[in-house]
Amino acid sequence: MAKQLLERKGVNFQEIRVDLDPDKRQEMMQKSRQRTVPQIFINGKSIGGYTDLAQLQRSNQLDDLLAANS
């Protein structure tokens, strides 16, 4: 659902399949301190998972974060 939301907004993103790369999974857990997926990073900052992304969208904060990434 996170990918669908970002695609609807026309956002380019990089998907890293941590289920296929144990080193990337470990890196994700160190950066986000979370074990669940997805873990979403904007401008190198962990914003959490899909629920957090959707909350940013509902509170009209997501566009500002994405604009700062451009």
From TrEMBL:
A Pfam entry, by short name: Glutaredoxin
Every Glutaredoxin domain range: 1-47
Keywords: Disulfide bond, Electron transport, Redox-active center, Transport
GO molecular function, one term: protein-disulfide reductase activity
Keyword presence, RNA-binding: no
Cytoplasm as UniProt keyword: no
Gene3D superfamilies reported for this sequence: Glutaredoxin
Top-rank taxon: Bacteria
Family membership: Belongs to the glutaredoxin family.
Protein name: Glutaredoxin 3 (Grx3)
Naturally occurring in which organism (per UniProt): Methylophaga lonarensis MPL
